[in-house]
Every structure is written in C-alpha cells, then in structure tokens.
Amino acid sequence: MLNLPDHYIDLHPTVRDLLSSECQLYIGGQFVSAQSRKTFETIDPSTEQVLASVSEADATDVDRAVQAARQAFEGDWRHKMTPDDRSKLIWKLADLIDERAEILAQLDTLDTGKPYQTALTVDVPLSAEHFRYYAGFPTKIEGATIPVSTQGMFNYTIREPLGVCGLIVPWNYPLLMASWKIAPALAAGNCIILKPAEQTPLSALYLATLFEEAGFPPGVFNVINGYGRGAGAALVEHAGVNKIGFTGSVATAQTIIRSSADTLKRVSLELGGKSPNIVFADADLSNASVGATWAIFGNNGQSCTAGSRLYIERGIFDKVVQGMVDEVSNIKIGPGMTHEPYNLGPVISEVQMNKVLSYVDEGFQGGGEAVTGGKRMTDTGYFIEPTIIVNTTDDMRINREEIFGPVVCAMPFDDVNDILKRANDTDYGLAAGLWTTNLSRAHQFASKLQAGTIWINTWGNTDAASPFGGYKQSGHGREMGKEAIDLYTEVKSVWINIDG
Ligand code: NAI
Ligand code: MG
User: Fold this and answer.
1) In terms of CATH architecture, what is 13-271+476-492?
2) pTM, entire model
C-alpha cells in the first residue's frame, strides 16, 4: 500500500510498521479498530498518494473511550497517584518525545508535507518543552485560605481536575497543538480523549505508545481518529465528557458551543485570526521586511497567528514590499520528506488549496495585483506560490476572512491614528504586531491593539510559560502559562463551622 517517491528520506522502521497496517484507535490502553470496521485514508499532500488507512471512530467508539477514561479517572490516576507521581510521568513523556523525535517528526511531515527539518527542530522539541513546563505543575496547583467575613467560619478552596477532557485539534501543527492541550490537562489530573484532525491522524497514535512506555495507567490518554461531524461531534455531545478544548475554525467552534449546550460542559476555544502587522517608517526596514515575510509565510500561512493584513507607512511602502519580494525569491518549496533543504511544503489538502486560490482570485477580481505569486505551482501536490497582493481595500473579503494559506495583502497607510482603528476593525483578535524604533509608540500600540498577543519588532514567538489566546472571535480562554491550569480545573470552596 505504502507508495512513497524514491527521493524521500528513509522511513524509520517504526514509521514503516505504523503505516503498513491499519492505524487503529487507542482506547483504554489498547489499539482497537472502530466497531463499525470503517476506515478512512490519510494522504501525503506533496504527492496526493495514500499514506495509510486509519480507523474511523463514530459515537460508539467515542462512548467506549469515555468509559475507559472515566474508569481511569475514578481509579489509581486520581486516588493512588500523588502529584509528584504525575510530575514524574509527564517529565518522562517529555524525554521520550525528545528521544523519538525522528519518528514523530516523520509522521507529522508525511501527514502535513512540512519540511522534515522543521518538524524535527521546531514542532517536536516545542512539544517536549510543553510537557516539561507542565510537569512542574502537579505539585503547585494550590487552593487558598479565604478571609471570609462570617464569624466562626473557616473557608478554603481546593482546585480539582474536571474529569474527562475531549481535546479536538487541527492539522497545522498536529503534535504541537495536541501537546498544548494535553500537557496542562494531565498536570491538573484529568483524563484525556484526543481527537486529531482527519488530515493528520498519525503522530497522536505514536504518542499513545509513549504514554504506555512512560508508565501512565491505561485510559488516562485515549486517541479517537475520525471526522469532525462523526467522532468530534459525538465527543462534544457525550455527557461523560466534562470539557472540550478546541483549536480550529470559528464555524466549528460555533457548532461546538451549540451542541455543548445540552450538557453545559466546559469549553475553551483557540480560533483563527486576521492579524494586523504594522510597519512604521521609523522601523529597521530590513528586519521588518524579513519579519513581515515570515509572519505570513511561516508554515505556509497555515498558522492561527499569520500576519495576513500588512499595513506599511506610505513613504516606505515600496521599499518594504520589495524587501519581501526579495526574501520570497529565496524561499525553496517542495515535499518535506526529501533531503532538499526546502523552507516550505504544500498546503494541507485539496480543499484548503482551493479555498486559498479562490480567495486569491476574488482579490484579483476586486482590483488586487500580485507582486509575487498567485498561482498553484505543480499539477500534483498542493503547492501554492507565496503570494503578496497589493491594491486591495480593508472591506474586501480577502482582508476580512481568515485565508489560512500563503497569502498576504500589503496596504499603505498615512495616518498613525487611523491605522490603529483599521488594525482593530476585525472580528478577530488573536495576534497583532508592529515594527518601530519609537518606544512610546510601541507601548501605546501594545496597549491599544485588541489582540491576545502583541509582537513588537518580532513575530510568531510563543513559549509554554506565556499565555496565549484570543480577543473577540479568536476564542475563549488562555492556553499556556499558569492560565491553562484554570482551563482544566474546577475550584471548590469549603466552609467549616469552627465555632463548635
Ligand atoms: P475545523 O475547525 O473544521 O477542524 C478542526 C478540528 O475540528 C478537526 O479535528 C475536525 O475534525 C474537528 N471538527 C470539525 N467539525 C467538528 C464538529 N462538528 N464537532 C467537533 N469537532 C469538529 O477546520 P478545517 O475544516 O480543518 O479548516 C477550515 C478552516 O479553519 C481553515 O481554512 C482555517 O481558516 C481554520 N483553521 C484554524 C486553525 C487554527 O489554528 N486556529 C486550525 C485549523 C483550521
Ligand atoms: Mg494527510
């Protein structure tokens, strides 16, 4: 079945094994097929060839996973293991992720087409770091004693795990997006059912074997692959699931909120963006040009924080755009699994490619012009040229909706007061950035831009220790940092009459 081009790097034997038979679900410590026996295919977006066949979970399998996770939650995980035991397990998992980086990176590269070196040196180590950061938390999740104003009463709080968390993640950074959610959920003492994106089911299954190797009790971590409308929806609706942690599109988030209404489960949402990136005339222009290029083209624009609305002060507009065109001319694009040092791979799927290209066409029809890019690159594989478009206006759909591909619109501005309004005139609020050497301006904009992350003379930084999330339609809640512990715990207030 496995049909990879000759020029691909050699598959790790473990990867070859994993792909050579059905990739099953992982429930209660066992690899099992879907009860319906249904499978779906995951494909290599560089070649459009099938990589593997994957068990397709439906509501029945989700129910099995919920039973397993609930049993684990009520068992040793909750009642016998100390916080220190949990810390050691999570740290061990981080070490195993680093140790098996090659395998995890190959699986994410095959599924996404991203460069193997990127997966190996960015996605995987950042995932391990995420577990390492949260490994320290179990022993530090504290309650408080509260000075209540009722005579004779002693009041304190306890922070408890929520129970079973359904974590639904996207395909842009499969292992890393899963880690962002799994690590704090585990640290807080929850059990987990992970629903990877149907485009990228593979790395989560290998991660499951690492949970086993680290010594987690069965049922603490479960993986159900399948489609959003099947496995995903069943997880959201299940009464035995206490919380949904989701990263993905606004439309799916809205569906999740509606269908979680019956059970009123906790929901946290990390959604997309249409992030403004503002270059002022006083900026270091060569840094700004390179920074603005990678703000959008990093991971092929398939990042929730992509700097897709680029505002450049008019006097330096041509110079910055030319700097970006020069930077783009050095970007090498090709299949991530080859030995070539490519910077970018294909976009994830035919659906995504067509979505991106249709936004580009619409931009052209509205008067936009590409200074570079604008087309599909090859007949096979979902490769799109990095595209910089000028002559568009703020009201065009291309400047209002998330494209999630390698497309940026560069627009000039004249008025420094006006640009703040334009930057904030969006339904989204995930990230925003500016390039300037003016310190007061940097602080003013940091305070007034409506976004969960502000980058000044940089773009794209994240760290397990620093909170991340969105204003407005970019989401609910903050992941990372100590804030993420709030997303995965319930606070209990205890009153004791000490007056006898
Ligand atoms: P999506 O939001 O539909 O998919 C993300 C995850 O949600 C996947 O695991 C999917 O199976 C699951 N899902 C889908 N429908 C569901 C449902 N009814 N109930 C429960 N789970 C469900 O995103 P999709 O279709 O892959 O991409 C569409 C657009 O969404 C992209 O073009 C991009 O604009 C945006 N997106 C944003 C991401 C981000 O990081 N903020 C990540 C992925 C997509
Ligand atoms: Mg795939």
Assistant:
1) 3-Layer(aba) Sandwich (3.40)
2) 0.98
